[in-house]
Amino acid sequence: MRYDEARTKLLHEIESLFFAGEAEVEVVHGIGNYILRRMAEQELGALDYVEILSPGYYANPGTMRVRLLVPDPGALQSYRA
Fold this sequence. Notes:
alpha+beta, Ribosomal Protein S8, Chain: A, domain 1, three-stranded antiparallel beta sheet, 3 helices
């Protein structure tokens, strides 16, 4: 997957998972030159409802774990409206 395509998919999926109420997500970016990892860190770091877990948290170097700071179900329902 290319950079722009990966960025669009990442942001769409994270938003979908947030509204689905998911608490933790594993983002697969691959190994290579870490271009997609850096993009994911930059894009997700700009979102106030995403916390990137420390690199040592998950052993696979081609993935990163993030925590979605999902509010309680009542507040989440009001966002959907």
